[in-house]
Amino acid sequence: LGQIHPGVHSIAEGFSWFADGVRNIVVVPVVTLVLLAGRQWRWAVFLVVSSQGGLLLSNALKFSIARERPPMIEATDFQLHLSFPSGHTFSGLTVWVAMAMIAWYLLPRPFGDIAAAALVVIALANGPSRLILGKHWLTDVLGAWLVAGGWLMLVWAGFLWFLRPRTSG
After folding, report:
1. Reported pTM
2. pLDDT tens, 75-88?
């Protein structure tokens, strides 16, 4: 689809841009520092554990399964040849949905709602964008959504259990 329609290809590349590893290396520390500066250390821990644990889990699966990418792309190093799970799709959930949750809880209404909705759209559009660009198989995206969603929910449960703000009394 991305090879046939240049406009669709450009939109897909735009969404993929957000969840690229280089962007996340900058975005996660910046958002973490902003949270820490605002004395929101619990949310900072949530974001770091979700994103960095997700990165480790995604790469552990990617290197242990070592599935080849679809033949439509050119790749020059070993990491580029590995397909399952889709790292962009995985970080879409573990970074961008995590930030959407944070925005929804911390920002005043309606800004929190708008920011959370935009971040969720960015997060979820990464999966289809990887298919449109021909970078992954459908099962790479579905598997990334399932495993990353499970990881995010596990981290969220831990956050609610261990790090939730305590009320006195």
Report:
1. 0.81
2. 554 446 777 888 78
- Please write the tens of the pLDDT for every residue from 38-82: 999 899 999 999 999 998 898 888 888 877 777 766 555 444 677
Handedness of CA 55, 59, 65, 68 (dihedral sign): positive
CA 11 to CA 15: how far, in whole Å?
6
List, in sequence order, the alpha helices (H) in the chain.
6-18, 21-37, 41-65, 78-81, 87-91, 98-106, 111-132, 138-158
Give the CA distances from residue 106 to residues 35, 73, 98, 115, in Å, rounded to whole numbers and listed in that order: 10, 41, 12, 11
Nearest to 101 by CA among 113, 84, 90, 87: 113
- CA angle centred on 11, ends 121 and 76, rounded to 5°: 105
- Contact between 128 and 14 (Cβ < 8 Å): no
